[in-house]
Amino acid sequence: MRELTVYSILVGIILAVVFGAANAYLGLKVGMTVSASIPAAVVSMGIMRLLLKRQSVRENNIVQTITSAGESLAAGVIFTVPALILLEFDVSILYITTIALVGGLLGVLAFIPFRKRFIEEEERELIYPEGRACAEVLQAPDRKGDLPFIFTGLLIGFVVRFFINVVSLLKGVSGVMVKGFTYLAMDLSPALLGVGYILGMRISSYILAGGLLSWIALIPLIGYFTGTPLDSEEVAFEIWNAYIRYIGAGAVLVGGIISFLRNIRAFEAFISLRTGKNDLPFWVVMAGLGFLIVFMSLSPVFHFGIIGTVITVLFAIVFVGVSGRIVGIVGSSSNPISGMTIATLVIVAFIIRKMGLTGQEGMIAALTTGAVVCIAAAIAGDTSQDLKTGYLVGATPRNQQIAELIGVIASSLVIGWVLILLHQAYGIGSKELPAPQATLMALILEGSFGEGLPWMLIAVGGSIAVIFELLGINALAVAVGLYLPLELSTTIFAGALVRRFFDHPSGTVYASGIIAGDALMGIVAALLIVGGFRVQMPSLGGAVSLLLVMALFIMPLLRGVKLFGR
Predict the structure, then answer these.
(1) 462-488 residue pLDDT tens
(2) Model-level pTM greater than 0.85?
(3) Are 375 and 104 in contact (CB under 8 A)?
(4) Alpha carbon of 1 to those of 5, 42, 492: distances in Å?
(5) Does 421 reside within a domain?
(6) How far apart are CA 367 and CA 79, in angstroms?
(7) 150 touches 513 (CB < 8 A)
């Protein structure tokens, strides 16, 4: 049966670039990304089966493998590299491309020795939910009924984002200042509603709990004890910026460490260092890793020499194993790669300072290490899900591993341009693109190489994470909400509420379409804004905009997508 064909490679590369760009926008806006495997599988079926008349399940599987590699690489890049932009360092497209390429290749190659154990030998323990769901989509031609939903989602997300970003008819955020208490708001992003729908009530509730803890407990409390009157949105955000972000950093750091300790046994698989008979040969894996080590040691892009390179590769292998195992339990969308990266950054910053690197040089070296590790962990999580899908549909692991490498290379060549474009259009660190993870990385770098971090606030955040873990609650999800502006958490929760009351068999695919449409219009809008095209219209107001966006989000779930004649 056909697998790695010219058709599957070309279509996969195109979709990898598109979904990678969309996920870059989404991650910079909301601080999280969503796995592209399922929507990529659906779109792949639409293109390969309906347009190109190619019926091979394994060929479709190669398309979604390449596509999802592009999405995951984008996630690793936007969580880290923008920190240098926030610190006003000169970041070139060559730097971004090189970091993305090295981290992506390292993630794919380092996961291969884990594949047989994780995917085949621990099949009952590691279920890989998204990998299984993707396999079901690929194996069910009668799921053409999902196509109207994903394209309706694309259309709605695209149109709503156009009327928010380009013509300003809809207000982007609907909020109210409760004077003397706090600021309460909802972001009208369709992508956030889609994220909440996919995450469901449990995880979305944890995120909202973290947000409410920040905005209706900690911020009013800090305002009271510091004598700061909470009489405007700006004051509330000043407290959030000065105190809450560090508390959130501590919670994310401790939550990431807890996730690592829970999955430490992953490394039993690496001790035997072998690959399966259908994997890329072990000598190819080791030759590839050896080449990356030599390249990183000699390349001027990397600022840390052989010792720093060895540290980077060791951290990458550790978190590749952790990431591959975690997504087998909770899925790629809940993979805590930001927590792993923060843990890496704190430890590496300490080591680099002891090596004598300080100031800008030390910060760039530490962030580069963190970026490579983050990208490797993101790609490893995606690779493991894709290989599980392939295992279930009878694909050849070797071909999928080659497809992952192709996806990494193609996306690496584009992601730098996308990042610079978004920064020019919206400004990374602005309200439109707050880049929460990258902002957190920048804070840690500044503290580690400057006057020092406010360790008391970080310790408070870590204590909060421990308390939630003792209560049996996912501390990392709470930490995300603790750190994000409240309007993001409330909208994610609203999406989960829609799923609770208006669930639909094609709802997840529809929500994926919404996310993709919103994010893609964000890219198009960036091009229009940079080109000088932006229309200022009278806004409909926050309440009216909110009702309109919610109605548009819910209607297809009620009516079965009448827009497409069903």
Answers:
(1) 999 999 999 988 787 788 788 777 888
(2) no
(3) yes
(4) 11, 20, 41
(5) yes
(6) 11
(7) yes
